[in-house]
Specification:
The chain has 356 residues and is mostly helical. It contains 15 helices and two strands.
Length: 356
């Protein structure tokens, strides 16, 4: 019988891991280059996106393709709340910004929370009718939602400045904000999944009819999951907007949802730790593949750089993954201390370090 670690030891190990990660991030913020800090920020934000989508798609079993729409809502709302009033007057030249946004400027934290709540509100408005659909119909409905929000952003000049977008956004996002929110996202969603409510969500994923027969309110559970995922997507959108400091409707095309879906599927659709791993690999891998977009040489052969080639390579990787490794890295398993301990002891036994 396999031994398992005690709860107190797991707590100590988790606390030590958080302290180590925090210390490494502190060192990176002090000594790393701006490029490395940018990658670390993007990694944390992508974790928020991937984990929030995993809650909806992987844990609850809702096939949603509208995540980019909630990211857009969070980005625009937070930007309109944090931009200085004078900057708004210079930005909205074609049509003036509507009241009360033209008179408001607030700190980053409340703006981020409001952005998440507005995204959650839109999530509820969308979930209430859409979740009565099933299968492909639900996917099409959520895909249409994302495109609708993008088109509205492209034409609502008095709110979003239309196709011109919003520029000179205050660069409030830093390592502490992005990784702090990533920690909160993982903590909240992981706690939910481990609770009886989370077990009900998994039951709904496996068989909604059987779950309903067991007394689970399938519709209300799905709505809560969708709204919570939308909230953190909005928070991630706020962080992303204040990191890149410029947004426009093209930033929130369907390709944005596709990128997040790659992260979730790569890590294992249904695993929170898998979503974290997938987001990390995707973020770093995307930067390594940037070499394909500029001329490079292998031995004596010169290759011309092709713009957008890295996304083509990632798309091919996703196709291969879906064909030969559908579970992803973690599948529906979680990377726990017990799993690490079992893998360590199994490896040690093979080398004869410990007895059977």
């Amino acid at each position: 019988m396999e031994k398992s670690l005690s709860n107190s030891l797991k707590f100590i190990l988790t606390l030590a891991l958080i302290v180590v990660i925090g210390f490494l991030l502190f060192l990176a913020n002090k000594r790393a280059s701006e490029y490395v800090i940018l990658i670390l920020n993007l990694m944390a934000i992508n974790m928020i996106f991937a984990v929030s989508l995993t809650l909806i798609n992987g844990i609850t079993g809702i096939f949603s393709l509208g995540h980019a729409g909630f990211i857009a809502i969070g980005a625009y709302v937070s930007t309109l709340l944090t931009l200085p009033v004078a900057q708004k007057e210079m930005t909205f030249l074609i049509k003036p910004l509507i009241y009360p946004f033209n008179q408001i400027q607030m700190p980053f934290l409340p703006a981020t929370l409001i952005a998440g709540l507005v995204a959650a509100g839109f999530g509820y408005v969308v979930a209430a009718p859409s979740l009565r659909l099933i299968g492909d119909y639900l996917a099409i409905a959520t895909l249409g939602l994302g495109e609708t929000i993008r088109i509205i952003a492209n034409n609502a000049w008095s709110i979003t400045n239309g196709a011109l977008g919003l520029k000179a956004i205050p660069p409030y996002t830093n390592i502490y904000w992005s990784w702090g929110w990533a920690f909160v996202t993982v903590l909240v969603i992981a706690s939910l999944v481990k609770s009886s409510y989370g077990r009900a969500l998994k039951a709904i994923r496996e068989d909604p009819i059987a779950a309903k027969a067991m007394g689970i309110n399938v519709f209300s559970h799905q709505v809560v999951s969708f709204v919570l995922g939308s909230f953190f997507a909005g928070v991630g959108g706020a962080l992303w907007a204040h990191l890149i400091t410029t947004i426009d409707p093209k930033s929130f095309a369907f390709s944005k949802t596709f990128e997040i879906l790659i992260m979730a599927v790569l890590g294992g659709l249904g695993s929170i730790s898998g979503a974290i791993i997938g987001a990390s690999i995707y973020t770093v891998g995307l930067e390594f593949l940037r070499v394909l977009e500029s001329p490079f040489k292998i031995w004596f052969i010169n290759f011309p750089g092709i713009p957008g080639m890295r996304m083509v390579v990632l798309s091919i990787m996703l196709i291969v993954l879906m064909l030969f490794w559908q579970r992803g890295i973690m599948g529906r398993d979680e990377l726990t201390w017990d799993l690490i301990y079992k893998l360590f002891t199994k490896s040690a036994r093979r080398r004869g370090v410990v007895d059977e």
